[in-house]
Amino acid sequence: MFPTSLPIPMQVHRAHAFGHTKDEDQEFFIRNSDVCINHCVEKIFKKYLSQKAENPSTSSCFAKTIDMTSSFRKKIALKQEEKNAKAQGLPYDPSTCRFGVSRLKAELPTVYEVVLGKLYEPTGNKLATQITQSLEACKAFDEFLGTEVSCATLDRSSLSYRDEKGLFLHIDWKFFCKEEIDPSAADPTQVKMEDLLSSEKFMMQINELQKSKGGITKADLEEITSASALTLVRQRKERNPAQFWFHRDISILKKMQQKWEVFQSLRPSDISSSLDPNGFIIGTLSYSIQGKAPVVLTKYSTYFESRPNESKEDILVRIRKKSFVTLCHQDVTDLNTTLSDANLYFDDAIHWTSDQGIDALQDTVGKMIFLLAHNHRDMRGTAAETEWIEKAIYKLHGFELPHDEQRMPDLIAFGNYDMNEYLVEYKRSTPLKTA
After folding, report:
1. Which of 76, 178, 343, 379 has the highest Cβ tally under 10 A?
2. How far apart are CA 197 and CA 210, in angstroms?
3. Is 282 helix (H, G, I), strand (E, B) or coil?
4. 139-143 contacts: CB < 8 A, separation 24 or more?
5. Of all residues in the chain, what percent are helix, strand and coil, respectively (each to 5)?
6. What pLDDT score does 149 carry?
7. pLDDT tens for residues 139-196?
8. Taking the model in full, what pTM does it have?
9. DSSP string across 286-297
10. What is the CATH number of domain 15-106+335-434?
């Protein structure tokens, strides 16, 4: 049984975010999770494999699996949120539920950023250590520290990973002086309603829909708004990719600076009195696969303080000891591309055979999870949905992955941008048992 008030150990469990803090709520979630996992195995995977055996041209069941798990996650959340609202004597509006809802379906493109502090501090500390290890051998950082000129430097000689499928994973570093962070900088992934209202195509679609249907519903408006906003962001990126990502980085660091100021006010005794950040670091985790164009996954950012007449080692020590790392999830314009690439590993996992060995299965599933975690396709609930797919794949092949409320493979992925280290930790956290 689960305690009526779940403790917060080394890392917060997502039950707190979901509102599953009582025995009955947590058991409700686990019970429904099992239903979803079994549905994936019996109604999707086995049916697909049977059809594939009869007709080799049968397309992958990945998209169907993604849609089903998202839908199921939303159903669970709707019940839980309604129950929580009722317990507090509050009305509940189902349209406010964000679980299982694609970020592509948001009224306007959504940017998801997480401060890896407070409840997620262990992951933040781990990343701070990884970042300093990367910067120890980073010549571009040495050059940046040695100049009086305000500039951003890119280092492409950093950590990289390749596999037999052609996956090339790498992280690039940029460095900015505090003075470069323009407080008025606009985020190129953000679309305001006035941007859309000034678009002739957007207004034309609205008018055409009103004429054809004799009116326009809220759902119609949201669908057109979402699609038009996404198109606008894509156009900005395609028009000038370098400018798009430069302004994106500045925007991320601007928000980080604002969050730092809030964080500083909340913890003045151990932070503000001894630290005055005057520089910022942003790492861009990207990948390409099968020779295709690179795709940005996640951006990691942190600060540093450079003091007169001190070594680089002193700067790195402060980053480790007073970690403050933010994580910005994948841009909405790249969500479908990464889902398509994750599909490659999903298919390999579904078609795994015992002669390939368990290690190969875990490697394949682990890489799929890595891409899905950084993809963060839904506004909320992506982590649980991915875990259901993971457990369903193992169950299909005769393995059980016991429920562990402290196991969070998405955080393992976020906390390891080195794929080799990630796979070691992933397999260590995945104690398969024969069903």
Report:
1. 76
2. 16
3. strand
4. 140/173, 140/175, 141/173, 141/175, 141/281, 141/312, 142/312
5. 55, 10, 30
6. 39
7. 888 888 885 434 444 444 456 789 999 999 999 999 999 888 888 888 898 888 888 8
8. 0.88
9. EEE-TTPPPEEE
10. 1.10.3290.20
